[in-house]
Amino acid sequence: MHFTDLGLCAEILRSISEQGYDTPTPIQAQAIPLVLEGRDLMAAAQTGTGKTAGFTLPILQLLSTRDAGLSLKRFKSRALILVPTRELAVQVHDSVRTYGKHLGLKAAAIYGGVGMAPQTRSLRAGVDIIVATPGRLLDHIEQRSADLSGIEILVLDEADRMLDMGFIRDIRKVIALLPKQKQTLLFSATFSDEIRGLVAGLLKNPASVEVARRNAPAEAVAQSVYHVDRERKRDLLIQLIDNHGWHQVLVFTRTKHGADALSERLGKAGIKAAALHGNKSQGQRQRALDDFKRLKVTVLVATDIAARGIDIDELPHVVNYELPHVAEDYVHRIGRTGRAGSSGEAISLVCVDEHRLLRDIERLLKKDIEKRTVEGFEPDPRIRPEPIQNGRGGGARSSQPRGAAPSGQRKPQRAAPGGKPAARSGGQRQGAGYYSGAR
Fold first, then answer.
1. pLDDT of res. 219
2. Which of these, 46, 389, 347, 343, lies nearest to 190 by C-alpha position?
3. For 315-360, what is each residue's pLDDT tens digit?
4. Of 60, 154, 158, 335, which has the most beta carbons under 10 Å away?
5. Are 292 and 300 in contact (CB under 8 A)?
């Protein structure tokens, strides 16, 4: 199958060709015809599957062929794409601009961490497509710079992550402001009961598309575990990078503090590194990501939420410096490599504190991950496991008694789906239920 077989107009096909693409990915081949038919859609797709073009291409087509009455509602936006993070908002907005360059449709990316004034000017000038994080969009709605009464198409992208980040209240507020008659597209890596509850009554006879088994790791990713003491992880990581000559490595930590500390330690060892997390400014985050993509930085140390939206072709190595508290997040992490037919390697550095987390991951994968040790870094059997505290950095130990909080439990202030929004200041939301800088 080719893009020319999907019923897309000549202008969009021209843009696709200019990007060097000819054959759609499975999610694109399945989703595009359904969206063009006007169907509501529930799509199970992870990042790296081409899902962004799977909805931006048909949305551009539908809006471009329905513009007869556009002059009557020039200041009313017609499509809304909700995403969980700034990085994903930029990525989706870039996709809209790239594939819609020959159509004359206008789009705006709306997210926090930057000033509201330029976004306000764009919205008030009139845009067809809004790509937004939920919290910042509500800020604009309160200031009357965004009008959702003309929305014809709604997309909830990475819905599972938006719920994880505590945006469910904001999403419901936004949905309540939309016209009842609209086309709704839902994209999510998993479909939890909470997501199904969110969309109950929102989607009308939706079509269903699934391009990968639920929680399936990338087939092209070679996975391995290195057992090492908690205090020796950094030295082992440095040795692995040096000995193997790795030039591009995405490293995951559980916390922002841990990302900063590891990045600094790598720099002192002569390895160019940058940290990516929610406490960084938008400019800092974009520079770190750009430098990593251009190989100016060898190691990008990221937290799970900040890494959403990272889309790098042929990324060779992912390292779990610390295992995630939730096993499904391991699958999301290693899915950053082994994309588009390329091979990849995912390595986990596991100390005695994390054995239970490793067992949870292997139970989810339904297989054992290959275990390795490096000479000189063999674990000391005398070291006893200690509790891992969610809110501290770098695998820090805690005085919290064992069993005080389940390993998969999120800290309330980082993801409280039912939490009351904190007071606003300068258009930014802080406190309960919101991840700082995630908008």
1. 63
2. 46
3. 899 999 999 988 878 888 888 786 655 678 999 999 999 999 999 9
4. 60
5. yes
Model's pTM, two decimal places? Answer: 0.59
| Residue in the structure block whose two tokens are 């986990």 | 348
Give the integer Cα–Cα distance in Å for 297 and 318: 15
Nearest of 233, 238, 251, 275 to residue 396 by alpha carbon = 233
Q: In the CATH scheme, what is the code of domain 221-372?
A: 3.40.50.300
CB crowding 151-166: b at 16 or more within 10 Å, else e: bbbbbbbbbbbbbbbb
Domain(s) of CATH 3.40.50.300: residues in the chain? 3-210, 221-372
pLDDT of residue 430 exceeding 80, the answer is no
* Tens digit of each residue's pLDDT (9 = 90 or more) over 231-256: 999 999 999 999 999 999 999 999 99
Q: Tell me, letter by letter, the H, E, C secondary structure of the chain.
A: CCHHHCCCCHHHHHHHHHCCCCCCCHHHHHHHHHHHCCCCEEEECCCCCCHHHHHHHHHHHHHHHCHHHHHHHCCCCCEEEECCCHHHHHHHHHHHHHHCCCCCCCEEEECCCCCCHHHHHHHHHCCCEEEECHHHHHHHHHCCCCCCCCCCEEEEECHHHHHHCCCHHHHHHHHHCCCCCCEEEEEECCCCHHHHHHHCCCCCCCEEEECCCCCCCCCCEEEEEEECCHHHHHHHHHHHHHHHCCCCEEEECCCHHHHHHHHHHHHHCCCCEEEECCCCCHHHHHHHHHHHHCCCCCEEEECHHHHCCCCCCCCCEEEECCCCCCHHHHHHHHCCCCCCCCCEEEEEEECHHHHHHHHHHHHHHCCCCEEECCCCCCCCCCCCCCCECCCCCCCCECCCCCCCCCCCCCCCCCCCCCCCCCCEECCEECCCCCCCCCC
